[in-house]
Amino acid sequence: MNGSKIKEEEEEEKTLKPSSIQLFQSTIAKISVAQICQSIGFTSFQTSALESFSNIATRYLETLAKSASLSANSSGRTECNLFDVIQAIEDMNSIRGFVGATNMKKSLLKSGVLKEIRSFVRFVDEIPFAKPIPRRNLKKSLVLSRVEDQVQRFSHIPAWLPSLPDVSTYKKIQKEERIGFNEVEKDRGVVDCSVEKNVNVEKKESFFLPVKRPKVKFKFGLNSNLGVNVELGTRNGVCRGGKRVSCHDLSEEDDIKSFKRKR
Amino acid sequence: MNHQPSHEGRQDDDSALSDFLASLMDYTPTIPDELVEHYVAKSGFQCPDVRLIRLVAVATQKFIAEVATDALQHCKARQASVVKDKRDKQQKDKRLTLTMEDLSKALHEYGVNMKHQEYFADNPSSGVDPVSREE
């Protein structure tokens, strides 16, 4: 019984419904919006009004972030900086207008919007959120794994690229040398990493697919022999006794190639 | 014609700005950092700096506060116009309620067109309210 209970709990954690996550987010947003409204002088609210207001607030937040990241991306960066954020805030405020919006040559640091925000921070009382929110540990593990990746990374690969595939896909285990795309980079003179230099012999072979690969199995149903149309992917008793083909070694392919050439 | 800022002015600006950003470290916006980070990450905003997250949070808070203030003004104005006729109702309706009507009016000025049902039965009392019926 215990085991099954634990399993159930695990499943519950895994299938933490997106709706419940959304509910959590929207509830937090609602609470903070309600706090702000209360600080301004409202004493009560219609449920629908609060819901739509918090929805609009989160949309505002998302739009702001989107436009900031867009301006960062368009100038060739992945991380946003202060200027992107100010630009985004100005964009969001441009509907109503703000002081100094007419002067296009003004530095962003002098932006009227920023001044407004500054005075807002100065004059409006600080109302911290009602309750501390637990952070998920997921982020920590993510960061850790990233750091581990970075250790294995080479200096010339930018951090934002996804990590290389598993080592076994491009590295011979017995002979310690890299083949595959690292080799390509070496030819271009990009690599400054610790690739051993006795590669000259095998350089021409380097464009082969990786040597170690998982086995690939094919199964042919008997029914094709019988001339009966059976849908693919049905693996029921009818298919039993099908022919099994597995290819696992490059050397075989080489043999075949050479055989073909001889012919 | 002279658009170029003087060097001193720029330095002043820079120092004021960095002071402001530093003050954000101590300032806790009402919208919690966690929520902001979540939504911001969802839309592709990548930034390790807490101050910028705070800046985004403060900007959003300012937006909410402004809209709420406008809604409050609408609410007060509406109440004031109604209450003249019915003094006895004044006691009942004295509390300030954030309604869809005021909110959509306030949001309209900010470029948000919010359409809402004329009659929204989320609450048994919402249909009975004579004040909102009058309009």
UniProtKB/TrEMBL annotation, chain A:
Its main location: nucleus. PANTHER family: TRANSCRIPTION INITIATION FACTOR TFIID SUBUNIT 8, TRANSCRIPTION INITIATION FACTOR TFIID SUBUNIT 8-LIKE. Keywords: Initiation factor, Nucleus, Protein biosynthesis, Transcription, Transcription regulation. It holds the Pfam family Bromo_TP. One of its GO terms (cellular component) is transcription factor TFIID complex. One of its GO terms (molecular function) is translation initiation factor activity. The keyword Nucleus applies. InterPro entries: BTP, Histone-fold, TAF8. Residues 22-98 form the Bromodomain associated domain. It is found in: Nucleus. It comes from the Eukaryota. This is Transcription initiation factor tfiid subunit.
UniProtKB/TrEMBL annotation, chain B:
The keyword Oxidoreductase does not apply. It comes from the Eukaryota. It is found in: Nucleus. GO terms for molecular function: promoter-specific chromatin binding; RNA polymerase II general transcription initiation factor activity; translation initiation factor activity. GO terms for cellular component: SAGA complex; transcription factor TFIID complex. The keyword Iron does not apply. Keywords: Initiation factor, Nucleus, Protein biosynthesis, Transcription, Transcription regulation. One of its GO terms (biological process) is transcription initiation at RNA polymerase II promoter. It holds the Pfam family TAF10. Belongs to the TAF10 family. PANTHER family: TRANSCRIPTION INITIATION FACTOR TFIID SUBUNIT 10. TAFs are components of the transcription factor IID (TFIID) complex that is essential for mediating regulation of RNA polymerase transcription. This is Transcription initiation factor TFIID subunit 10. It comes from Thalictrum thalictroides (Rue-anemone). The lineage of its organism: Eukaryota, Viridiplantae, Streptophyta, Embryophyta, Tracheophyta.
